[in-house]
Amino acid sequence: MANGGPVTTQQGGGLPRPVASGVHSDMAQQRAGGDLAKWWRNFTRVDKRPHEQPAPNGIFGVPLQTSIRYANVAISLFNDEGQSYIYGYVPIVVAKCGVFLKEKATDVEGIFRLAGSEKRIKELKVAFDSPDRYGKGLDWSGYTVHDAANILRRYFNQLPEPIIPLDFYERFRNPLRNHQAQAVGPSEAQSPSVGDFDDKSAIKAYQNLITELPPLNRQLLLYILDLLAVFASKSDLNKMTTANLSAIFQPGILSHPHHDMAPQEYRLSQDVLIFLIENQDSFLIGMQGTEADPET
């Protein structure tokens, strides 16, 4: 062992070793003791080093605020003068899947309902989970739109917290509470409507709520609402109505673990997402406070 080590004594047979006596014996013991002390100091010194920070561990099941630091894509918009500016940052997996699906899948029937290949989906998960590119250079050759749709859903469903944080859960549901049928049309498990509903007031309430969201959550919410609105606009071809899209994506966007088994509560959250998708153009264009946060 480098830097010395503990002294061992010979075991078993063999000729007896001469026993050192007097000053030579004392010097040997001191030298052995010094080597042992030096070894122990080195051992304890290594043990007391501060623990290194663990390397990033992917994106699936990792909080958005953590993974966005090493797996992000900048999103640009154009202002009224035609100038491009960075609106915000979204996870690479969302941007890559979103662009691919917009280009190839808007007219594919049942795009978010049909499963892809489990083998290819696992390959995609590894690609998006792996440093240091996290899927940024991914080539979609060999993968289908159903693979991309499935991996996008898995990312959202495996987030530790929905895109709309739990602290905002009830606040996002309140504008439509007791007005679900008036806001998005009647369906099963809705609470009865009470009083009149003003959609303009509801849109204004959601505009204010969206601006209050943490920047990363706000940017991701608006990005996915835009993506879902694109597919809803071609629901005559892909059969992905706002109701169908809401049923699929609501768990990763607006949900609460206490309401997983409560049909009326589940229905209210889905209706809120339907309303947000149908009015998504009111939440970005001309709306203040939705640009990228300088501290992000």
UniProtKB/TrEMBL annotation:
Residues 1-27 are annotated as: Disordered. Residues 75-284 form the Rho-GAP domain. This is Rho-GAP domain-containing protein. GO terms for cellular component: cell cortex. Transmembrane segments: none annotated. Residues 1-10 have a biased composition (Polar residues). Keywords: GTPase activation. One of its GO terms (molecular function) is GTPase activator activity.
